[in-house]
Design brief:
Layout lengths: L21 E6 L4 E8 L18 H20 L6 E11 L12 E15 L2 E13 L2 E13 L1 H14 L34 E2 L5 E4 L19 H18 L12 E6 L10 E4 L8 E7 L2 E9 L1
Antiparallel strand pairs: 1-2, 2-4, 3-6, 3-9, 4-5, 5-6, 7-8, 8-10, 9-12, 10-11, 11-12
């Protein structure tokens, strides 16, 4: 596997070369693909945390796996580049945090991807369930599983038009809703530009809630224009609110912990120009934090995060 240059940015659905982490891909079997990734020493978004800068953030490694879903579809299965993709479920677990220790050079990782299930309809294959094992310096560092699907551009447009019409929204979306943001340190961030939720408030049942604050100018979360709230942005909102809730409950002493476990499901598109509310359930000692995302009282996504 080579680490000297990145894969083409269009292959991983990124606009900026700096946001491409994959450097190679090789199909090793009918259901197996081996990929190479170079993780930057200090990423302006993913590594902007209050945690000691001695380890890569697990969400950075998960992003490398997310980029791999496009490579498997396009390069290995012949899905046309113009097709649209959507996340359905994401899981990840840190296997060895010490394997994610940073060094004086960019980290080289090998990602073993395995097709666990092919999703089909009458028109043919429409999606996959991929399982990943990420190895760094010969040590298994993280496992992940991603369910996703794809569709032709014309089918995507029909689907998006139906949903936006049901909400009485214009097509295309107007500018996203913005507003006051939470304090950066409270959500475990250093740079206020990387805060994606409003100031949290208690819900009265032991949980907390905040509104997602979407900025389409963000160079990582909105690397390119999309007509909905990206799934990774939804996960980041859950992470930030879960971190504040864990600190407020006393489960964590400070917002410096890294997310070492994640399980999330996406139920429908989240619209940028409607309020998107993130809520946590009451945080129990030693348990993962459970989060839900709602829009117009309709469930959009749910996640469980362990720190």
């Amino acid at each position: 596997m080579q680490f000297t240059r990145t894969l083409p940015k269009e292959l991983v659905h990124r606009a900026a070369v700096a946001e491409v982490f994959l450097t190679d891909a090789k199909r090793t079997g009918e259901d197996e693909v081996l990929l190479a990734a170079q993780l930057p020493r200090l990423h302006a978004f993913h590594d902007d945390t209050l945690a000691p800068r001695t380890h890569h953030d697990p969400f950075l490694v998960l992003e490398a796996c997310r980029q791999a879903i496009f490579v498997v579809a396009h390069r290995c299965l012949g899905v046309p580049l113009g097709h649209r993709f959507l996340l359905r479920a994401v899981e990840s677990d840190v296997l060895d945090l010490t394997a994610l220790t940073t060094g004086t050079t960019p980290t080289e990782a090998v990602i073993a991807a395995r097709i666990e299930e092919r999703l089909r309809s009458r028109s043919g294959m429409t999606g996959l369930r991929l399982a990943f094992t990420v190895t760094v310096r010969g040590r298994p560092a993280l496992s992940a599983r991603i369910d996703y699907s794809w569709m032709r551009p014309q089918d995507w447009d029909r689907l998006r038009t139906r949903q936006r019409d049901a909400f009485g929204l214009s097509r295309p979306p107007v500018a996203p809703l913005e507003g006051p943001c939470a304090d950066a340190a409270a959500v475990g961030r250093r740079d206020p530009a990387n805060v994606v939720i409003s100031p949290p408030r208690p819900t009265g049942d032991g949980g907390s809630e905040a509104r997602l604050v979407a900025r389409t100018t963000h160079p990582t979360l909105y690397d390119h224009w999309v007509d909905h709230v990206p799934g990774m942005l939804e996960l980041e909102a859950c992470r930030q609110l879960a971190l504040t809730a864990a600190v407020a409950s006393g489960t964590l002493r400070a917002p410096t912990a890294l997310p070492v476990g994640l399980s999330a499901r996406f139920h429908r598109f989240a619209e940028m120009d409607l309020p998107l509310v993130c809520r946590t359930a009451p945080v129990l000692p030693g348990a993962d934090v459970e989060c839900t995302l709602h829009q117009l009282r309709t469930p959009v996504a749910e996640a469980r995060i362990g720190f």
